[in-house]
Amino acid sequence: MSRKPKPTPEPIEGQERREVRTEAKKVRKRNHVLRILFVILLLLILLMSISYACVSFVNKAGRFTINLDPDAYNVGISISDTKDFKNPTIMLSGDPIENMDNITKEWILNHKSSSFYNPNDPTYRTFADVDNVDGSHNGQNYIAYTFYIKNTGKEKCGYNASLDILSSTKGTDDAMRVMVYYNGEPTVYGKTPREDNKHDKYAWFEIDKTFKDSKTVMEMSNRNFKVGDTDKFTVVLWLEGWDPECVNDILGGEAKLEMNFDAIKVDEKEV
What is the C-alpha end-to-end distance of the chain, expressed in Å? Predict the structure, then answer.
């Protein structure tokens, strides 16, 4: 006896519309979730980009920067990398060098007759000429930066300056030399040699004065900074190849320096 096929049930009135509405809600919910996920993804990419940019900036932050305390700026002191002060500021930053090899001070002149002549580096007749190029003027293996500080205020004031070692890895600062020109007069600073090298003449090679301490190259003050006065600085940094601390162990090391200025109040009668 054969079975009769069951008849297809008649659709219940309104059921089809409910199914369509239910399916539409699911689609809208899914699209809403996808939009949220897309926004989250964009935010994550943006956050990663910002983080990378910040890390990159920290790793390449000039190796040498100049900072003016805002309070000094407020009393009329400003800094600039050009003597005309067309763009006064409170912060300057030198170009970074990612792979600095050791040299010796004389190589900075880069005379064409020298066996160590580098066609990609600036050439100077004398060390006085190194002080005559504004802004960043690095060589391949040294940092050089010239800038100015000026009293553009309405009364005499003063300032303190310190050249600080922001960071140093692998003992890089042990072999470092920093030549600071102040209004044309250069002084070469170097770290006090370790006890086992104190009697080695090359440990003192090209050092006029030792670092003030382990974190400070030098400090100075100008307590007679009259209205309109301008002081000029040039900072040159290199790794001295003759120093016994200039060894393979410091390969891959880094040294970052910054020069900081802040204002000091002075008595008008003070000279």
Answer: 127
**What's the number of domains the chain is made of?**
2
* Residue at 162: amino acid letter: S
7 assigned to some structural domain: no
Q: How far apart are CA 108 and CA 111, in angstroms?
A: 9
Residue 92 belongs to domain spanning: 62-264
Statement to judge: residues 106 and 209 lie in one domain: yes
Q: Are residues 221 and 246 in the same domain?
A: yes
CA–CA distance from 51 to each of 37, 46, 55, 97, 139 (Å)? 21, 9, 6, 22, 30
Residues 45 and 76 in one domain: no
What's the pTM value of the predicted model, to 2 decimals?
0.76
Q: What average pLDDT does the chain have?
A: 84
Render pLDDT for 122-155 as a digit per residue (tens, 0 to 9).
Answer: 999 999 999 999 999 999 999 999 999 999 999 9
The residues, ordered by sequence, that sit 6+ positions from 251 with a Cβ below 8 Å of its Cβ are 170
Query: Does residue 191 contact residue 210 with C-beta atoms inside 8 Å?
Result: yes
Per-residue DSSP letters for 123-137? --SSHHHHTTS-EE-
Closest CA to 65 of 233, 268, 250: 233
Distance CA 170, CA 67 (A): 26
Neighbouring C-beta atoms of residue 37, cutoff 10 Å: 10
Kindly report the number of other CB atoms within 10 A of residue 110's CB atom. 19
Residue that is last in its domain, among 20, 37, 59? 59
DSSP state of 226: -
